[in-house]
Amino acid sequence: MRLLSIEDEPTTAAYLHKGLTEHGHVVDTAQDGIEGLHLATSGRYDLILLDVSLPGANGWQVLESLRARQHTPVFMLSGHDQVEDRVRGLQLGADDYLVKPFAFAELLARIQVVARRAAQPATPSVVQVADLEVDSARRLVRRAGKHLALTTKEFALLDYLARHLGQVVSRTLIAENCWDMHFDSDTNVIDVAVRRLRAKVDDPFVEKLIHTIRGVGYVLDSRPA
Fold this sequence. Notes:
Elements: E1 2-6, H1 10-22, E2 26-30, H2 33-42, E3 47-51, H3 59-67, E4 74-78, H4 83-91, E5 96-99, H5 104-119, E6 126-129, E7 132-135, E8 140-143, E9 146-147, H6 152-163, E10 169-170, H7 171-179, H8 189-201, E11 210-213, E12 217-220
Parallel strand pairs: 1-2, 1-3, 3-4, 4-5
Antiparallel strand pairs: 6-7, 7-8, 8-9, 10-12, 11-12
């Protein structure tokens, strides 16, 4: 895989470059947010490792700019382990959030998850429920014939619900499959993500398709009011 490491701390940057290169990855390195954003948007990368505390433009700013242009997987790296920071990163569109210091073996394992996903052939499957169409292969969503513009995380969440159409999925399963990580029990990031998805998929329409099963999770289904 071709990776981009945006890290201003020289020791950490060298550690990441050496370790990832030794495991067969091609690694480019940027030392500030501005350079990192330029490389990320001008090159083709399979994954981006993005530090939060960066000169020029911080990790939050870089992530917001990236998500406005592309869907390349982004792993946030930070010395802050507050729940609020992790939630902020995930809500801005990060695919994962690793707290420093992290085990290199864990980083490799999470990168391998991305690699396995990329190796899977795309299947042109379209899930339809009522007037909602979710096209996983083309990453398109329509309702009542109208295209819905979803963020990367919103699409991942809707696609997961669509692939389990009619099945109740727990917050834990959503967290593991849409964010590749576990969440603290007091974190409401899943509920916030569902609310934002509903604002686009359900709120403008009479029939509601995303249902809350109290104490269990969520289900995508066409049900009578």
